[in-house]
Amino acid sequence: MKSKSSRRTRSAASPRDGDSPSPDYKNDLLIAAIGASAGGIEAFTEFVSSLPNDTGMAFVLVQHLDPEHKSMLTELISKKTRMLVKEVTNGMTVEPNHVYVIPSNASMSISNHSLQLGPREESRGVHMSIDHFMRALAEQQGNRAIGIILSGSGTDGTAGLAEIQAHGGVTFAQDESSAKYPSMPASAVSAGCVDYILPPKAIAQELACIARHPYLVRDHGAEAADIASAQNTGLTLVFQLLRKTTSVDFTHYRQSTILRRIQRRMVVHKIDKIEEYVKYLQSNPQELKALYKDMLINVTSFFRNPRAFDALKSHVFPAILKNHPPDASIRIWTPGCASGEETYSVAIALLEFLGDKASQTNIQLFGTDVSDSSIAKARTGAYHENIQSDVSHDRLRRFFTKVEGRYRISKNIRDMCIFAQHNLLNDPPFSQMNLIACRNLLIYLEPILQSKAISLFHYALRPGGYLLLGTSEGVGSAGDLFSSEDRANKIFFKKATAVRQAVTFTMHHLAERQQNGALIVPAKLLDSSWNYLEAQKEFDRRLLSQYAPATVFINEDLEIIHTRGGVNRYLKLAPGRASLSIMKMAREGLLPDLRNAIAKAKKENVTVRKHNIQIKNGNGNGATGSDSGRLVNFEVAPVSLGSLKELYFMIVFEDSPVIARPAPVSRSARDASESKAVSGRITRLEQELAATKEYLQSVIETQQATNEELQSANEEILSSNEELQSTNEELETAKEELQSANEELSTVNDELRNRNQEVNQINNDLTNLFASIYFAVVMVGSDLAIRRFTPQAQKILGLIPADVGRPLININPPVEIPDLQSLVLQVMATSTQIDREFTDRQRGRYQLRILPYRTVDNKIDGAVITIVDISNRALGESG
């Protein structure tokens, strides 16, 4: 006899048995993943019996099953639907209008529209089979994936629904009133990743409507046309509404992703056209908030892509520690951290690498995200049990504490992490970072925003800093800013650049250090050694100016860069535009010999000396035009510095010695002297002529060089413009760094404000709790100093508020408690509870209990003393 499953009535959309399905249906096939556990079979049978047989969808049931027993689910479900029901076998192709049931003792995923089975793995705790399949389905189907969570205990399926929602799919959860075990659907609802909360029958009805939505059944050509139309009309209006409400501009976010998020919301509200959805947004502010939340795609997990963290520990962290000053802190920034898993994962990896050195290293991690709700979750640091599939058992034991069914990050990691709401593209970036881990954020941005983000990361990193990106991301055209260190794991190294990158951002937090519109600048502190050093400099200056020879230092371009002594006797400022060229400043008569000497010293790299060069003082009066001359000597010495490639010259000037006039002589002697003078003048003129020839030759050579210099004039002008631009950017650097520092301080203030609020709330709770306790409670520290006590303790022990902080031994209570101090010390030493009974002077009986005071880190830091009056009970027993 044939089973009922083989006699199902097939719809027109369903292929015949034995036929290969048409390849066209795969691209548009909707696949619904249904996760269930305890009580889920009843919910699923109600769901599947309410479904039409021709939805064109495929349904995959992932039920928690006993691995030791064969499942009978296929037979049970076959009785409730006319669709074909199959137990999954490895490699089975998914077809429309079919129901697929996971077999027992197996893990299931999907690839290329075929179901893949693998061995069940529970090495990391509870088997999260629903999360595993839904994540694979989200990657495979994108916006044509649907997730449903029915009755069950635990948290399996929460992460899977979040992945489906992030890829544009629609999600459902069974409502609490109809679920026999509501833990699983309630966990998904509390995580904010559920679009519909309905009973099973209503979920089936909604699915039937969704299957007919134009967005899900259209062909790809029509979808592309709608996208182009939406970009020109409704999409712009949606961006304007979001920008006005949230101050976040999505204009240059990746358009395909943005449209999928908008169209997903249209499917949820059964709206066919984007123009209608814009009207719906304008009249429903709550939907605008829901769309904004969808746009941010806050989906992450611990240690996503584990190989990247292995690369951090093997390559990046050792390099950071090697070049890091011992007294400085290691600073790490994770932009787009969502609910904090990425930040905490990097912190755990760093602590594992440091080992015993962790306690000696100052570590600061900054986690930022534009979503305030995600930052609030990150600050809490508490996560569902399903993180067991991503975090090893050893890490859970070392770095987490299990509290009320959740895993809370340990206090030492939480203290080193600072979380803040921050818009990467608008707010000032952090600075002086050793590592920036920004994974799977750039893929949602258009190239113009990607380039801006990469420039911001380059600015925020210290020299030698590292950038970690997602597997599908890169630095693009910014190869001049970063070099690839690990191509496989997308790790990049910051390059040093000659020209500072333009970094622009707006300030949302203004500095408060202003008074009457002016920035308050602290006065420079006076240094006691400053005046003494200045006196020394003045002493050296006067000594050199009065006793040192006139000396000039020039560079290869013959520009004066430094002088010593009285050089004004040999050089003067030329009229016209001011110039420091020694050729323009040399006094008349000095120029030819000076130029020849410099050229020879440069060419032969030797010291050149010139003697008895006649120069004019330039002191002649205008009437006669006379000018007294004098003879000078000078020396040109080339100066080469090992650390500099440029050649310098030192020129030392001095006056020639004055020759005394001879005594009067006879006429014949005078004629002979005049003849000799004429001969000497001729010789001098010949020397001047030879010098002039050398000078003219050097002028010719100089003229030839000038032609080349004129050809490079345009390049020098362009270079000057670049230098001016670089100078302007350097002037803006201080402002940018101040803005970054201010943003960082603001972030720390936000973190401290939140912690203060938590501490105030805890103090209020403790105050009210102590006030409501009817028996005496006294808390003492490890030094036996009193920390807190209840009102009843004031009556029994005679305490007053001023006793807080006083040692317990200094208290003289009206009730005598034998060996109280020694008992407290014994409890703190042994960590064991002690119970005693004692009697006061009025024969009242009391129960004394002393317990160790344990911190969050399970350390003993004092004791808790409780005293209960049991006199009435004792009387009752005696009666």
Structure explained in plain terms:
With 879 residues, this protein is of the alpha/beta class. It contains 27 helices and 32 strands. The strands form seven sheets. A seven-stranded parallel β-sheet has the order 3-5-2-1-8-9-10, with helices on both faces. Strands 16-12-11-17-18-20-19 form a seven-stranded mixed β-sheet, sandwiched between helices. The protein has a five-stranded antiparallel β-sheet with strand order 24-23-27-26-25, covered by helices on one side. A hairpin with a 5-residue loop joins β31 (845-854) and β32. The protein is elongated and about 150 Å long. The two termini are 80 Å apart. Mean pLDDT is 80; it is low at 1-25, 219-225, 227-231, 507-530 and 620-626.
Brief characterization of the structure:
With 879 residues, the protein is α/β, with parallel strands linked by helices. 41% of the residues lie in helices and 20% in strands. The protein is elongated and about 150 Å long.
Helices and strands, with pairings:
Layout: H1 24-28, E1 30-36, H2 40-49, E2 57-63, H3 73-78, E3 84-87, E4 92-93, E5 98-101, E6 107-111, E7 114-118, H4 129-141, E8 145-149, H5 158-166, E9 170-174, H6 183-190, E10 196-198, H7 200-210, H8 214-217, H9 220-232, H10 234-246, H11 255-268, H12 274-283, H13 285-296, H14 306-322, E11 330-335, H15 341-354, E12 363-369, H16 372-380, E13 382-383, H17 393-399, E14 400-403, E15 406-409, H18 411-416, E16 417-421, E17 433-438, H19 447-460, E18 461-469, E19 482-486, E20 491-494, E21 514-515, E22 518-519, H20 530-547, E23 550-554, E24 560-564, H21 582-585, H22 591-604, E25 608-616, E26 629-640, E27 647-655, H23 667-711, H24 713-772, E28 776-780, E29 786-789, H25 791-797, H26 820-830, E30 834-839, E31 845-854, E32 860-869, H27 871-878
